[in-house]
């Protein structure tokens, strides 16, 4: 198989940093060596043992030397994370599922707590005690808004034309009557 070679002069912007006067790091780095482009310019630390699943970018050849193991991917959020890491880091398919996985992980954590008999104290965890003490008006306004929006949604979803409901009910029982007569 023949390797495709690209002529550097045909690439727009090629050599744009060749002029040291145009290099933003020039005053800080007068003796340019470009050794950073050769790969690792430092001795790589000893690899931390991998004893849990570690997700890493598909743009990196290996796992970083040190990584967190406190919460390996699991459950539905883990499935979403595994799917997200199939994509490049510059894709929405990478970052948006990771944000979703974080939200799903919160719900999974609350459900796990409830399964173990520990019920969340939402009032305390949301900081409502501090809001009540230092910004009572804003807290009351936020809670009233939440209550009004929730109540409005419940009313909207449960309301409907009673005639249409009765007509549908009679129709499904096999006795179709037209109430407009």
Structure description:
The protein is mainly alpha-helical. 44% of the residues lie in helices and 0% in strands. It is built from six helices and no strands. The chain has helices at residues 75-84, 92-115, 122-125, 128-134, 136-158, 162-172.
Which short descriptors sum up this protein?
181 residues; mainly alpha
- Which H/E pattern describes the elements? HHHHHH
Radius of gyration: 30 Å
Number of DSSP strand runs: 0
Tell me the fraction of residues in β-strands, as a range: under 5%
Helix content: 40-55%
Total number of helices: 6
| Overall geometry | elongated
Mean pLDDT: 82
Structural class: mainly alpha
Main sheet attributes: strand count, strand direction, barrel closure: none
Taking pLDDT < 50 over at least 5 consecutive residues as the criterion, the unreliable ranges are: none
Between the first and last Cα atoms, what is the distance in angstroms?
Answer: 81 Å
Q: Quaternary arrangement of the chains shown?
A: single chain
Give a short summary of the structure.
The protein has 181 residues and is an all-alpha fold. The chain has helices at residues 75-84, 92-115, 122-125, 128-134, 136-158, 162-172.
List the topology elements.
Layout: H1 75-84, H2 92-115, H3 122-125, H4 128-134, H5 136-158, H6 162-172
Helix pairs in contact: 1-2, 4-5
């Amino acid at each position: 198989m023949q390797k495709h070679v690209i002529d550097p002069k045909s690439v727009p912007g090629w050599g744009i940093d060749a002029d040291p006067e145009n290099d933003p790091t020039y005053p800080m780095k007068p003796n340019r060596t470009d050794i950073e482009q050769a790969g690792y310019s430092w001795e790589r630390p000893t690899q931390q043992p991998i004893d849990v699943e570690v997700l890493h970018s598909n743009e990196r050849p290996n796992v970083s030397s040190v990584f967190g193991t406190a919460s390996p991917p699991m459950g539905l959020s883990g499935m979403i994370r595994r799917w997200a890491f199939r994509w490049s880091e510059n894709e929405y398919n990478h970052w948006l599922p990771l944000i979703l996985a974080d939200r799903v992980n919160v719900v999974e954590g609350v459900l796990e707590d409830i399964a173990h008999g520990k019920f969340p104290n939402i009032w305390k965890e949301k900081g409502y005690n501090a809001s009540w003490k230092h910004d009572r008006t804003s807290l009351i306004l936020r809670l009233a808004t939440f209550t009004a929006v929730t109540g409005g949604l419940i009313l909207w979803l449960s309301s409907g034309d009673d005639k249409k409901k009765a007509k549908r009910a009679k129709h499904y029982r096999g006795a179709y009557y037209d109430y407009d007569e």
